[in-house]
Batch of 2 targets.
Target 1
Amino acid sequence: MLSFLDQIPLNLLILAALTLGLAPFFPEPHIWEKLKMLTAGNLTKSIDIFDLLMHATPFILLALKLVRMAMIRG
């Protein structure tokens, strides 16, 4: 798993987080809407949970990549 993460370019993860992670941009990013639903306790439909996971994946991968890079350097 970590070797797979090492092979993904950082630029690609940043681009994915900014585009796929935040799309659609208007009226508000989809991930923001789903996170608000989660905190309000309204995230109950399977499609909404799946949608949250799909929009969160680029951010999760980016965070894991940055932590991995810090561990290698440190």
Target 2
Amino acid sequence: MKYFCIFMRAGFYRPSDHTISIGGVQTYVYDLARLALSLGYAPLVVEMNNDGREARYELDGIQIQQVSVPGKHYFQRCFDRVYRQLAAPGNIYVIATDQLSIRCMAPGVVAIQHGIAFDEPIDKWYAPALKMLKCWRNVQRVAMVPHMVCVDYNFYNWYRTLSTVTPRHTLTVIPNYAQGCISEAELSEKLARTRRRRVLFARRFVEHRGALLFAAVARRLLREFPDVEITFAGRGPLEERLRALFGGDARVVFTTYEARESLSFHRQYDISVIPTVYSEGTSLSLCEAMSAGCYCVASHVGGMTNILLDGFNGRLVPPEEAAVYEALREAMVGPEAAFRDVCRNAYLSARTAFSKEKWQSRWTRVIQNLADDERA
């Protein structure tokens, strides 16, 4: 039996309701494990922790194992423990995010880089030195494994300014994807009935994903447009604070949806906002909204600049309240024909350039190359 082991932080699987947790990395890991299963591997997701939790579960043909090692540097020590137990020719070991800082130069090891995660604002006198240190540490992470897959060209080109891509440490770009697309007929039907008033924020409720930024924008929209409908879809530590900001306004809805329901869920909305403040790759949320024919307003952070051309298939704006508000207002009151053109172009972009089939094909080539490395 050939194992396809994916190592990640705890929080992938929720035993309480037998589902995966909400989040782009969780969805990515699930889809990658399912792809490995279709290629004849036995997928194993290893959730690493240092608080003593150890258990085994199974979900849709994917084995899930909680592994715990006490103390510091437990990601590396958990990885080493499982690697020693399962080391065998033909196995593949995927580090679900390079930020785990796991080092292993053995064949068959690949890490995933999900976008620059160290671009958060720092308002301190020592910010330049700290930023340089963060850059250096992330350059070093590429050298910890023989192969790395990154989800956007933004990281690839940033890395080339500070180091060199060499055959010893390969760097492959595989952009993120939409789970599927609505049909042409469904798109036409949707655009014929759109009111340009149903606005969706489908992200985790955390500051760096723009939850508070959009909340401020939403309050302005609610004052200006009595018929606007705003939906916050997700979970996160800011949920109670967000609910309190809207005081039970019937035009504001809080809900969740399963990853497999993404297409049908997004289809209900006219406009999707992805106002990330910092740290973003090629956003799954953005790709999924485009595939459902939504008009997308996104901040020009990270890999989202690889997806949208401003004014053609969406809007790209600074991660600032005024800019996001103006773009959303323009979508709601601007020419209807221009709105529909942007939605159609977004749909075509998702269907052709960011399809799940293309993502699967690119990952299949990576997996085949890793298997060849193991046999070499």
